[in-house]
Amino acid sequence: MDDGQVTAVPVIAIDGPGGSGKSTVARAVAARLGYRHLDTGAMYRAVTVLVLRAGVAGDSAEAAQLAQSMTLELGRSVLLNGEDVTAAIRALEVDEAVSSVAANPAVRANLVARQRAWLDGGRGAVVEGRDIGSVVFPDAALKVYLTADPRERARRRLQQVGEWDPGRESVPVEEASALLSARDDLDATRSSSPLVVPDGAKVVDSTGRSVEDVVEEVLSYL
């Protein structure tokens, strides 16, 4: 365990691959409990926006420096160096590039420190990401690993970025599904904080289920 970890605040850790519903479920669980909510994926996406704009490699020292020097505010909007990038971080080009940024050990070290500092001194929190229960807060009060069918995850992601077209479903869904699968493989095999089912986590499949139903299952484990 890292000495920087804060354990005094009750944490619900929700991990899982892209499109599994982490953000929607995490926000709903936090609202039900009166807890704060932190989307750590938005942090990596914010760094990715900077990397793409700067034209540097995600695994480079320059990417790590961008992460180190940025100012980032997370709430209803994502403010990166004072700019609202709430929509920009969800673009498909960010999806394609974020895994290389997230695999950068120096970027991860910086963002994990920010995540733990965010928790310090606050009330209970629901924190979502890909390494929350395994690395960031391994002593979380509850660990959930949220998953879903790959095609359903692809449809959700396309809807999120406003590119869902039911009239030609097979093409965009297959493309998005392949992109998500590739990112899953990269996240699961990276050397630094890979995507895994954390020890002791409850595995919850959200395929074909309402948000309310999934939230009730998560709350039932408390």
Write up this protein.
The protein is α/β, with parallel strands linked by helices. It has a single domain, classed as Rossmann fold (3-Layer(aba) Sandwich). 49% of the residues lie in helices and 14% in strands. The chain is built from 9 helices and 8 strands. The chain has helices at residues 22-33, 40-54, 61-69, 92-102, 105-119, 132-136, 150-160, 170-189, 211-220; strands at residues 11-15, 36-39, 72-74, 78-80, 83-84, 125-129, 142-147, 202-205. The strands form 2 sheets. The chain has a 5-stranded parallel sheet with strand order 2-6-1-7-8. The chain has a 3-stranded antiparallel sheet with strand order 3-4-5, covered by helices on one side. A hairpin with a 3-residue loop joins strand 3 and strand 4. Helix 2 packs across helix 4, helix 3 runs parallel beside helix 5 (105-119) and helix 4 (92-102) packs parallel to helix 8 (170-189). It is globular, with a radius of gyration of 17 Å. The two termini are 23 Å apart.
The CATH superfamily title: P-loop containing nucleotide triphosphate hydrolases
Overall geometry: globular
CATH topology: Rossmann fold
* Overall pLDDT confidence: 89
Q: What is the helix fraction of residues, given as a range? A: 40-55%
The amount of beta strand, in percent, is: 5-15%
> How many helices?
9
Just give the CATH class.
Alpha Beta
Main β-sheet, in a few words? 5 strands, parallel
Low-pLDDT windows of residues: 1-6
- CATH architecture heading: 3-Layer(aba) Sandwich
Intertermini distance: 23 Å
**Strand element count:** 8
Order of helices and strands: EHEHHEEEHHEHEHHEH
* Overall SS class: alpha/beta
Please give the domain count.
1
Rounded to an integer in angstroms, the radius of gyration calculated over CA atoms is 17 Å
Strand order of the largest sheet: 2-6-1-7-8
